[in-house]
Amino acid sequence: MAGRRGRSGWTDTAERALDLLVVLMVPVCLYTIFQLVPTEEKMGVVQRIFYFHVPSALAGFLGVVLCAVCSALYLSTRDRRFDRVAHASAELGVVFFTIVLLTGPIWARPVWGVWWTGEVRLTSTLVLWLMYAGYLILRQSAEDPEQAARWAGVLGIVGALDLPIIYKSVEWWRGLHPKVLKVSGGQGLDPAMGKAFGLCLVTFLLLFFALLIKRCRVGSLEDQVAELTHRTAPPSVRTEPA
Amino acid sequence: MSLQHLPSVASFLTLLAQEPVSGFTAENVATRPEIVERGLRFLNYAYTAVWVVLAVYLLSLSVRLRRLSLQVRRLKERAGP
Q: Is B76 at the interface with chain A, CB within 8 A?
């Protein structure tokens, strides 16, 4: 593959090992969720949505944080590699938050009786998704890639300011959304549920990094195409690359 | 999506909208199998949604990777050694 030129052998091996690990861990997760974990007594079987919903949310959080950090690094150094990682992370953030925004209402309907409420965690998550969807549209539609990278960098940093609101919303506004990670004074998760959750979380984070590597390769190939197109263009139409 | 799929999508959405509004409690989960069955149906919707999103994204990534690799190879051939 042309895009693989210049990559060392062990990088390829590590990437394939990561892919293989994810492929092996997904069925293990499904077996654990559907065969080993006890059914939650109040919500019943529908609570098992939690094992994919929450890890997706945390993978989405990771995408947004990585996007903000790499955007800040790009804006201060103008190194294209940071912009590439920021773009890839934003895209993955949108993918994982799409899963969150689909599975959340499917869980809410039988448990709360409604698909959606104006609850702060739900609304702020939707706002975050819209901001990063806007980020991707901005990257796609801009004519000057350099300017788009700068504007998207700012948007990537501003969008991440929504994360503390999402995380703390249940405490600050006493929302309906269950507290998942921190149950102060409560019973917390059943140990079997906690282990299954940990396994799913690790699997989703590995999936995130496996997809991130592939998405960064897409970005690298896009840059190569831009550079080669500039080199092969006739001198009369050649302009300085951004 | 083609027009011939619209009736099946519409019937699926109607089915979702017709779900009776009710909440789960420890008692009715334990005693009412229809509640468990309904929970399984929603569980099925949720896991289907997860796999569809991931499959579509993986497919789009592989299409982009293949297209760009081909484009790079062609441009390198055109650029020469």
A: yes
pLDDT, tens digit, for every residue of A69-109?
Answer: 999 999 999 999 999 999 999 999 999 999 999 999 999 99
Q: Tell me if A2 and B40 make a contact (CB, 8 A cut-off).
A: no
Distances (CA, A) of A79 to A69, A82, A102, A151, A194: 13, 6, 36, 15, 41
Length of chain B in terms of residues written: 81
CB neighbour burial string for B55-71, b if at least 16 within 10 angstroms, e if fewer: eebeeebeebbeebbeb
Asked if B73 is an interface residue toward chain A (Cβ–Cβ < 8 A), one would say: yes
ipTM for the complex? 0.86
Nearest CA-CA distance, residue B75 and chain A, Å:
6
* Residue from B36, B37, B47 whose CB has the most chain A CBs within 10 Å, to mutate: B47
pTM: 0.83
Name the DSSP class of B18. Answer: T
Q: Where are the beta strands (DSSP E) in chain B?
A: none
